[in-house]
């Protein structure tokens, strides 16, 4: 089903553009033929321009009228254009047919540009990767068998090899490994899992092979609940998102009713003749046609979308460009959003008689044999130092590593593991380590001793942390200057780590140790108080909150597939400072739209007054109408700067 859907999007996008192009070509040659006096030829080309350029608008307008019993601008435009053409044929003023065709061409071009921009934006961030594997490897009496996820039953045993995604929520029955579950819980470090512990679908298995037992249906897994929450939140669109459509239909109703009254009452009230009455009624439909009013909005939004794209800010639709400028509160995820999402060595402190370089080299020699993220962070920090890989390396799961390096026995691990080998730890390091832990850092102790001897000494400690993005604090400060009233953090990480990061970047309030459902509740609470709330995140666990937020903002590089699909705005280079730029762009677009609406309504008002006073004819009305449309369109293009 994927191919036909993509093919449909391809053809829709290009047929709209082709229709607008053909309409313009037929209009030009029709005008040229009329200018040369080839009336018959012109009357073949111009109706073709009407049909090709106006078909989509007429179809949508009639569909809305028949199915929803509503009038919209598409149908009003067709009526105005056909009225101009009919009047031109009736009075022999064939240039009026040209005027009607111009109206259709403008709407055809606008529709093609809008459709292309929106579909291109969506397609550019749509991921082809699945959230979870399509299959799982089960263990039965005949051995291993690969089956579809949908065929899994409660009680089935499955195997997951190192580096594979876990296919469904299950309990470990044998094996030990680290699980990267940042996509579900937001934890920055992989979690060590062993027999009896639960693992979640969509999380990534580390270095160990696991045998799992399915304890709940695949449809009830945490990730499936997240997807359902996303779908539910997406249906709760705020009323302001429908404002343009509602206004358009209400305006169309008023104009149609007024046009009918103007075509029937004046002969009885003011004694006008029927020809003058119909002429002015059709002129009214032309000058009151909301081309300028609609051009006051979409060119501005499309220009803003293009401006944002050049800055690496991808807006999924124009409504979100306006809404981002009205945000009063904003919530940030922690891991991968305010932080880089990748653990690094943040500090190294050596014990007396040792240097920081010696501590790093010794730890790297041992950790180079491990694929654990903490080990890889230490090796990366020591990449420019000269060290030799340790031998006789032995890993003790959940505790540490021992081995031989430079003819000495080396131990790297947590404090409990080190205390098995070292009788007395350096006091200065004992005082520093708790403060690191309070900041949410993982403390790695390094000790060494004579080979085959009993005396070991601690040579230093290493702090491992998910580093805060350098631009995070500056972004928070800039958001405050823009008038954001409340800035909060919502994360699945532990309270201590979250508060440490929040204090470093200037966050107002912290909500920690949250599941996806909890994040959704926090966003709803903020919306109740502040109405327009933005949410910034990158993981699957953020998706429901992003969907519920007035404006969902995703990190484009670090973001998971479902987040990129759910969010309204994507920061393509993961630059937090672009959030403030997006808000400023949204505020500019809102100001320009208001200015354009005033201009459009002003022109319509002047033309209507002129029509009632009999001071303008249909060609002048069309010129005034088209002139105002061009003016507000050019005004909207200011956002391209």
Structural commentary:
Helices cover about 55% and strands about 20% of the residues. It is of the alpha+beta class and about 650 residues long. Among the domains are: about 1-125; about 135-220, Calcium-transporting ATPase, cytoplasmic transduction domain A (Distorted Sandwich); about 340-465, Calcium-transporting ATPase, cytoplasmic domain N, CATH 3.40.1110. The strands form 4 sheets. The chain has a 7-stranded mixed beta sheet with strand order 10-22-21-20-11-18-19, sandwiched between helices. Helix 4 runs parallel beside helix 11. It comes from Nostoc parmelioides FACHB-3921. Its main location: membrane. Pfam families: E1-E2_ATPase, Hydrolase. InterPro entries: ATPase_P-typ_cyto_dom_N, ATPase_P-typ_P_site, ATPase_P-typ_TM_dom_sf, ATPase_P-typ_transduc_dom_A_sf, ATPase_P-type_domA, Cation_Transport_ATPase, HAD-like_sf, HAD_sf. Belongs to the cation transport ATPase (P-type) (TC 3.A.3) family. Type IB subfamily.
What is the number of helices? 24
Architecture of the domain at 341-467, according to CATH?
3-Layer(aba) Sandwich
Mean pLDDT: 80
Shape by Cα distribution:
elongated
The level 1 CATH classification of the domain at 341-467 is Alpha Beta
The CATH topology of the domain at 341-467 is Calcium-transporting ATPase, cytoplasmic domain N
What structural class do helix, strand and pairing data support? alpha+beta
Q: Please describe the biggest sheet, giving its number of strands, its sense, and whether it closes into a barrel.
A: 7 strands, mixed
Rg, rounded, reads: 33 Å
Spatial order of strands in the largest sheet? 10-22-21-20-11-18-19
Low-pLDDT regions: 1-10, 120-130, 233-241
Number of strands: 22
State which percent range the strand residues make up. Answer: 15-25%
| Portion of residues within helices | 40-55%
First and last CA, distance: 41 Å
CATH superfamily membership of the domain at 341-467, which one?
Calcium-transporting ATPase, cytoplasmic domain N
